[in-house]
Amino acid sequence: MYMRNSYKALSIAIASTLAMSAIAADGVTRLPTELQGLNYNKPLVEGKLSSSIPTPESILGFPVGQRAATPAQITEALAAWQKVSDRMQVVEYAQSHEGRPLHYVVISSAKNLANTDQIKSDLARLANPVNLSSSEEKRIIDRLPAVSWLAYTIHGNEASGSDAALAAIYQLIASQEQDIETLLDKSVIIIDPLMNPDGRARFTKQLQQRRGVAPNVDTQSTLHTDAWATGRSNHYFFDLNRDFTLGVHPETQGIVRSINEWNPQLMIDAHEMGSMDSYLFGLAREPVNKNLSSHIRKWGTVFEQDQADALDKENWPYYMGEWLENLYPGYSSYAAFRGTIHILYEQARIKEDGVMQPNGRIVSYAEGVDKQLVSSIANIKTLAKHSKDIYRDFVKDKRQLISKDSPFADQTFAILPTKNHQRMAKFVNLMQLQGFELHQSTKPIKVSKAKNQLGEQVKTELPVGTLLIRNRQSQGRLVSAMLEFDAKITDEVLVEERQRLLRNGSSLMYDATAWNISMMYGLEALTVKEDISEDIRPYEAPEQRPPIIKKENALAYVIDGQDDASVGFAARLMERGVTTRIIDKETVLDDVNISRGSIIVSRYDNEFFTGDLDAVVEKTAKEMHVTAHAVAGGHGEGDLPDFGGSHFKVLAQPRIAILHGSGVSSLDFGAIWHSIDSNLGIRHSHIDSNHFNWTDLRRYNTLVLPSTWRSKLGKSELSAINNWVESGGTLIAIDGSVPQLTNPKAKLSQVREIKDAFKEIEQYDIALQREWLAQQDSYPEISNIWQHNAVDTVNYPWDVKAKPLSEKQLKKQDEWLAQFRTSGAIVAARTDQKHWLTFGAPPVIPVLTARDPILMSKGRVETAVRFGSYQEMDASAWKKHVKEAKDKPVSRKVGWATLPQKQELTLRMSGLLWPEASKRLANSAYLTRERKGNGQIILFSGQPVFRGSTLATNRLLLNAIVYGSGLGAHTPITKL
């Protein structure tokens, strides 16, 4: 705990205070013994310092770098310094979910600080140089200072960054050395000391609780380990360093807005890694996203060398590349796609005190802080030295991006109109957050070269109102990175990736390989290979829809189920005591088109509702930004359903519990929690997994089991769940929590993992063919229905001649295929359009899949969503296939499943999906529902709310949570 001789007296005083909790029987306080090698004798901030600037120690109560400062202490330090320094301005750019402020500090000379509005204006002109003359460009560059953005601790438990930020701020505002004063004349240095205050608050509280009297350098001790739901994540347990292109949370939204406002030349992001590591920085190795400008790498090598020189002077070990790749654009490195040079720091994680490394050396927390500080100062000095040339390369690239010679000149992303207003609004908001130029078509536009999301080349007509994002714009690189259907990976990388998978099961891929926003959001989109510039206008938000459209003598209100917001509307109405129905088949009532999944609120059902029904409906509709249409008649047109028939189902208010705690994925739990809070806003409970045995499940009718890292529930817990389900509960299990339910020994679910299904593989194939045939609109057998003679031949939907593989052979093949599981690809899945779980979903949806269990379903298990989309083969291709086939009738298989006649199975939509993974995944179940007693079990093979952004599958989860207790489980009549 004592790292510098200059701090020794204060350290002993602190230790004495802490030791009051450890008083011996004789009443004497025991101070810690000396620990050789723990002291860090190098001052973090050196040189001549102004006495008018309070030292960090005088504000924090301990020397900066001795321990992790709390978010409150960081805010206090910024406020104290702002009062006395003319070199800094503090800007609050956001507030966290828990209400903590996020700040950036602008540090420069007084002259530059007085001119920040002009500096930002000049930077914006360079970032979008439309009509910018060469002479004006030169004048702007000549007068602009270097502008850097230094960001720290987006992972709250990677603590050293924030403390290095405090040291850097103090050095820059207090130093009276000539090199610093010159640096400030030439530079505007923006420091964001803490990007994740909620996570750091959780982390520092944990440190406080685990801190002892004596320093601890053992990485296995609880001081150096994390409790469940670590400080790495934010309030909702999201990893904010994956959110920069997704913009789900206020912390990253604020950073993105600020980066857009400043357009900095340099961004650094300080992290930590494993305690036994050293220090990583510099350029990433392959795979690297191909949308990055060449000048990013050119200048990256310059910064890399200067930073290495600075670390060499301190005799500190470091390395570059190795595990660091840069394919996924949603890290803080998203700024590089805007033209900002981005540098990642990864310091060995010390947490506090120090860590004993394998070489016997103790690395102190202060040393880790110092490495971040030395690197930061080195980088901003390099920028000051090369700023003008970097500006020139930046503008050169921007000019190319808006010109006819742009690498994206002939590309437009078209998002087709949808009645899912909430989903489209979220998409537009994200595009606007990123600063993209948006347009809309004013007339139908014919396009001859377009690719749809299934990879098909199509000729089509874009309807009026199509949202158009032209790739030929100043932010074209980021537009492409976020919206292109595939991020290309070189053959060399794929060769090495396959070698690794075969050698030891490792991967080059650090994150998902698919993330394009239109697929994540489940919006139909096209990539058009032309720059659409005619019959368009700048995007304008649609007129706000009225929350209610009243009608005289109305008997009910209807809310369109195609809009995701309809689920929240139903949930909130039920919580307010309003009886609510849902329709499972489309109809037309009183000239109002009603889609399946639409919500109906009738006066008949709410005869005894004590409040003002119209006012409550209007209030709830306004909250959810939907329109409640009044209908005055209940007769459906023609043979369409009438109000009062069996298609109008009464919903039951969900009473929701979510399992959380030890063994549960905090990321998946947090995503579900955030989805309920942000989409529904209704009450629900979080059940600690360690207390599950003592939980009275009768309080709930819906239980959600998020993904688990390992089998968590024991026999008694599974037995309790089984009894609860049979009594009428709705159990929803996701990803890693599914195998403990599908295990035959559990006797809970009839769904099986593929490894447990090979003994009955033919039965699964037959069940699949029955599913397919039940969805057809015509049958050739009908032509023979009226003949009197018994038929002598029947066409079976499988190959009756083929000899099936043995269980042993199937298992052997599956073990081979399983090696090539994807690290994150988007695949096509077909939906059962008659199932309530797919309300609001089109026939084919994109599903993000990773190393999820492969599920098999048959018999009484209802498969609402299954992997793979059937597409009819081209007639000539089918004829050729029939001609070349040896056996007649033609029978084809993908994996274990027979392909229907004339059909192909489309699977991959985006990302890296090896053929072996495709074969294994094909026709497996993504979403199943099965009755058990009076209740039901709903299984998702993967995580439906990945990073809060997979909106197509999130809708399925919301359907299950809100509608399940009324539609899938037997609900007794309780109002007697």
UniProtKB/TrEMBL annotation:
GO terms for biological process: proteolysis. The keyword Magnesium does not apply. The keyword Hydrolase applies. It holds the Pfam family Peptidase_M14. GO terms for molecular function: metallocarboxypeptidase activity; zinc ion binding. InterPro entries: Class_I_gatase-like, Peptidase_M14. Its cofactor is Zn(2+). One of its GO terms (cellular component) is extracellular space. Residues 82-289 form the Peptidase M14 domain. Keywords: Hydrolase, Metalloprotease, Protease, Signal, Zinc. Residues 1-24 form the signal peptide. Belongs to the peptidase M14 family. This is Peptidase M14 domain-containing protein. The lineage of its organism: Bacteria, Pseudomonadati, Pseudomonadota, Gammaproteobacteria, Alteromonadales.
